[in-house]
Amino acid sequence: MSEMWGISRAPFMKEFIISNPPQFPISHKCCKYAKKDVTKDILKSGDYDMQCIGVRRAEGGVRANIKNCFSEYPDSIDVFRPVFWLRDSDKDEYCKHYNIVHSRCYREYGFKRTGCAGCPYNKKFEEELEAVRKFEPQLYKAANNIFGESYEYTRRYLKFREQQKRSKKQ
User: Fold this and answer.
1) What is the DSSP letter of 101?
2) CA gap 12, 81 in Å, rounded
3) Domain residue extents for the chain
4) How far apart are CA 19 and CA 39, in angstroms?
5) How deeply is 143 buried, as exposed, middle or buried, from its count of CB atoms within 10 A (0-12, 13-18, 19+)?
6) How many other C-beta atoms lie within 10 A of the C-beta of residue 16?
7) Which class for 138: exposed (0-12), middle (13-18), buried (19 or more C-beta within 10 A)?
8) What digits encode the pLDDT tens for the residues 85-126?
9) Which of 44, 74, 75, 121 lies at 20 to 30 Å from 168 by C-alpha?
């Protein structure tokens, strides 16, 4: 695994997990089963030869490692990313020119980007949870029922990380 995605990317994460082993399952499979496999099944069930997805390199994360706007796969469905090279300023200009009306998540809740609602892997999960609590109380309740232990574990890690940083400075 590259350094970009390894545990060393998160300061003191390894130490935290060793001293505080999680008492609940942790998995990336939520994304796999709720998004990725669903998409694969839809694509398999149709007569498709290309998938168009709206990801931009400027969004960062995994997208920053993609090399171009088109991926060709022999014996499979090619992938085209029509907005891949747009910078944030390009996106803003496009939206203004075409009077794009964004989701309430952006207009009212103040989100800069969205993913799955309540995802505990979101580094800004606290901000998202607060907006969801305010605007979507039933979704807030559901997210806490599903991911509550993960939220608490992450909060404990963040406190641990801050304590470690402070003690390193002293």
Assistant:
1) P
2) 36
3) 43-100, 102-170
4) 38
5) buried
6) 20
7) exposed
8) 999 999 999 999 999 998 888 888 888 777 788 888 888 899
9) 121
